[in-house]
Structures are given as structure tokens and as C-alpha cells.
Amino acid sequence: MKSIILIVYFAVLIGIGLYCRKHATNVDGFVLGGRSVGPWLTAFAYGTSYFSAVVFVGYAGQFGWKYGIAATWAGIGNAIIGSMMAWFILGRRTRIMSQHLDSATMPQFFGKRFGSNALKIGASIIIFIFMIPYTASLYNGLSRLFGMAFDIDYSVCVLVMAVLTAIYVIAGGYMATAINDFIQGVIMLVGITAVIAAVLESKGGFMASLDGLARITDESVTTTPGIFSSFFGPDPLNLLFVVILTSLGTWGLPQMVQKFYAIKNEQAIQKGTIISTLFALVVAGGCYFLGGFGRLFSDQIDIKANGFDSIIPTMLSGLSDGMIALIVILVLSASMSTLSSLVIASSSTLTIDLIKDTFIKDMSESKQVLYMRALIVVFIAISAVLALIQYKSSVNFIAQLMGISWGAMAGSFLAPFMYSLYSKSVTTASCWVCFIFSSVLMTANMLIRPAFPAIMQSPINAGAIAMLAGLVIVPIVSALTPKPDKMLVDHAFAAYDRTAVVPQSVALGKK
Fold it and tell me: Which CATH number does the domain housing residue 110 bear?
């Protein structure tokens, strides 16, 4: 039964990819779906790109174990800061200015907004370096679940996931990804709700589970009774850093911001904000809420031997075959949707921002799409190989690079991108300082972590600090460096000055 469900699911994904070929004949169609994607598809594409198996299996288990039920704050932060505020602050202005500047990628936006080809290439290199380990980490949450549900080698799981994702992304581009993300998002919404209900029921229901959690003590963490069922948990400061990294990080991740480039119109942005926020509240809030009850299964879990990734699979192992099949599809959906978003962002950046403008300047539209399709194969292959190396050799650094990747990319791009949508005073120099600071900080955190202060030895804390530091660096450096070219800036901000005729229901007119 489980195998039949999986086969049907895979057939639907491929069928949608083939159906969407007509939307992927040029660069704008392949990368942005012709900038005509509606609110439901965009909101679900945003949400499913946001939450992968890393969140469901890795982060939910780890932070639920550390902070108890208070880990739910990470999911609430993801909904309010990472979704609602991101859409409200970035969505409309990103859509308007990116179309005005005719930019399809984040590096291309930087290059045209600041008139700097070097800045565009710098942003492309950061994405290329830090996107691949993030892509590879998506597979990590699948190994234990497939071992629990099927008698299938993890290597086969990785290859199947890689091939299927490659087929529908190469065939249909962004539109196929958006439609499949919608289907995968529905599965994630239904799946996480059903999983929470089933797991809590196995421990006597919500109130009994909460009571059991309140009775658990861990003297290595704290001697305070009931701490794991408390409002802020045993370590509010480090929990705050988790909220910042996983929530504010979306504002600077290329594959997330690119969703705003493709949305259809004003009404779609307004609806998308609501849909995306509710999606994140259910999926992210549900994941971290579920992970908060992990210590109820402490008699079955050996953290020292099996790591935090074993927590969620152990919690799910006693469920029925039908529920386990749903969970496997849930995690596959989360991983494949994020993987497809990442490889489109990576291949479009490398093709448009490096190969086309640096090496092959007269590349035709069809050639660009061909290069992007070829690079999708390359990126998926590299990520699959790295995932297999990590699995076969038990090397843990690839999984750790998830936090490094988020910190480096969001720390580099968040502040320069956001400020450049609102302020005419942002300088090229401030972008460079932010790029270099965050990339060097996160690389150093990976290579010489013991040399860092205790609070920054965690990649999550270091990544959160990189993002917050960028918000200070950009205005200070911009104030101390020569002002940008007035004509260049005025051209960019002319996007907001166009007269648009709208219905009376949208804006009140003069009498």
C-alpha cells in the first residue's frame, strides 16, 4: 500500500512537469513563470521552500529536546517574522523594482540596482559556494524515515528523489515547481496535523502529554521542575537566536525572495501574505510543537549514540502503516519542494549572472534555458553525491553546514537587499562590507569554532548575529562612503513613481 501511494505521488509530479513545458520556453518563463503566478501558488511555493526535512526531522527534534514546548516559539516566529512581515515589507517593493530593473535573480538585482557587475559576480559566488551544502543537507532527514518505513537502502532513496526532482524542474521550470509545491504544501498541512494528533494520542492525548512533559527533569540542563512544559523553556536566550536565524533568514535567502519576483499583482500579494502566514503557522508551528514532546520518548532515544535526528523518527515509529506512509510523503514533499527551489535559484544565478554576462555575452534565450537545465542536473548530482558521502562515511559536517549556509547567505544579502528597496543612500561599498563580513564570519565559525566566544560557537547564534550586524553595517558604511550615482538611483526608484489606474476599492480618488 505504501509503495502504491508513493508511485501515484511520483507520477503526478512528473505529469505536472511535462504539462508545464509550455511555460518554460524562455528565461522569464523558466525562472519566474512569466511573472504571472497567483497568490495560492506563490504562497505555497514560499512555504514549501521554507520548510524541508531539515526542519521536520532535524531542527524540530533538536530544539524540541533542548527547549521543550517553548520550541513552538520558533514556528510562531517563522509565521510572523519569516512569512507575514517578509511579505509585507519585501513583497510589493521587490515585485515592482525587480520588474522595472528587468532582474530575474538576486545577483542581477544587485548588479542593476547599484550599476556594478563586480557586485553581481560577488553575490553569485556567495550563492554558488553556500547553496550546495544547503542543498545536500535536504537529504539528511530522509535516511532514518525510509529505514523505518521501507526496506530500501538510503542510497536508492537519494537517487530517486534527485531524479524525480530533476525531471519535473527541467521540464516545466518555475511553473511546474509552483504547482507541485501547492500539492506538496497540501500534503504537508494535512500530514503535520494528522501526525501531531496521532503522536499525542499515543501518550494519552494533549493534556496527558503536557502533564508527562512537566514531570520530566534533566539536571544536566536545569533543576527547575516543569521547565520543559514552560512558556519560555530552560534557555530563552539561545531560543531567541533560533527564532532570529530561522525567521529573519528568509528575508535574505535568494530562493525565498525570488518568489516575490514572480507574483502576479497587488491583490495576489495581499492574499499571499495571509495564506503564507497561516501555512507557516500550521507547518512550522506544528513541527516545533511536535518536537517539544520528544522527551516523552526518552526511554527509546539515545542522543549520544544516534544524535538529535533520531528523535522525530523514534516518535513516529509506533504509528500505523498508513500514517507512516503519509509521513514519508510529507517529508519527501518538504524536501523535494525545497530542493527544486534551490536548484532553480542556483542554476539561474550561475547562467544569467556569471556565464552569460562574463563568458558568453551574446547568449540567446534558448541557450540560456538550455544552460539552466544542464546546470540543474549538475547541482542535483553534486548535492546527491555529497549526501551519499555523508551517509556512507558518517561525516557530519554537511549537516552542520545548513546553519552556516543560512547565516552566510542571509547575513550577506538581507540588509543590502531590504535597504536598497527603501533607501536611495545605500552604497555599493556597504554591500561589499556586508557580503565580506558575513561570509568570512560564517566560514571562520566552521573552521575555527573553538576560537569564538561561547555564545557564538553555535552556527545558529553566529548566523543570527551576522544578520543583525548587517542591519547596522549597511547604514553606517553608507553614511561614511561616497554617495551613489544620483541618476542610477533615481532610475531604480522611478519604478515606484509610475501612475497606475486601480479600482476604487483599492485606492480612494480625489473628488
Answer: 1.20.1730.10
